[in-house]
Specification:
- Strands 1, 2, 3, 4, 5 and 6 form a six-stranded parallel β-sheet that branches.
- Helix content is about 40%, strand content about 15%.
- It has seven helices and six strands.
- The longest helix has 21 residues.
- Helix 1 crosses helix 5.
- By secondary structure, the chain is of the alpha/beta class.
- The chain has one domain: Flavodoxin domain (Rossmann fold, 3-Layer(aba) Sandwich).
Length: about 200
């Protein structure tokens, strides 16, 4: 595929544990998509305040919003807690508004969703992330990753063991890479809405 610059992919993860499996999964995915040629950045949520607890000028909020604007695609990786996504990943998404002035920080960007579980395989969290992605006007790719018993799926150094679950992560990153390139020249056309044109006139 030809492109003017590598796809810019932002990674968000949903746990602050020292050995966070949602972070390890995101890091594995980042290594994979970098091999395809993407440029990646991470937002590290340590120090991000709860939504509304601090003004929008808070440095971590500004960092998150700048990274969202920088990105062409995003990867959201969360643990499943009590049958759904973590509060930390939701806080990050909450701090990214639909609009900043005339700019829409997420509209038209691609999105891949992933989750880790401590027990059996589940899709509750990725399903919720898909709802959020749609609400943020993102193009969420069809494929996704759900890693059950995540504590069994990573080596001591944090890399992912060779398995069908890792193969799925490769599939997801390959699909995200392709969708991001294919859509990048068509985003303006695909997100041009009658109601918004009417509001501007």
């Amino acid at each position: 595929m030809s492109f003017d610059h590598p796809p810019r992919i932002l990674f968000l993860y949903g746990s602050l544990r020292e050995r966070s499996y949602s972070r390890l999964l995101a890091e594995e995915a980042a290594r994979i998509i970098q091999e395809f040629g993407a440029e990646v950045k991470f937002f590290h949520p340590q120090g991000l305040p709860l939504y509304g607890a601090e003004p929008e000028t808070h440095p971590k909020v500004q960092e998150l919003r700048e990274l969202s604007l920088w990105s062409e695609g995003q990867v959201w990786s969360t643990p499943e807690l009590h049958g759904n996504l973590s509060g930390l990943i939701k806080t990050q998404i909450d701090w990214i508004p639909l609009t900043i002035g005339a700019i829409r920080p997420t509209q038209g960007k691609t999105l891949a969703v992933m989750q880790v579980s401590g027990g059996s395989q589940s899709f509750n969290a990725v399903n919720s992330l898909r709802i959020l992605g749609r609400w943020m006007r993102m193009f969420t790719i069809p494929n996704q990753s759900s890693v059950p018993k995540a504590y069994q799926e990573f080596n001591e150094d944090g890399t992912m063991k060779d398995s069908s679950y890792r193969d799925r992560v490769v599939d997801v990153m390959e699909e995200l890479y392709r969708f991001t390139i294919l859509l990048r020249e068509r985003v303006d056309e695909l997100t041009d809405r009658y109601s918004e044109r009417k509001a501007r006139s």
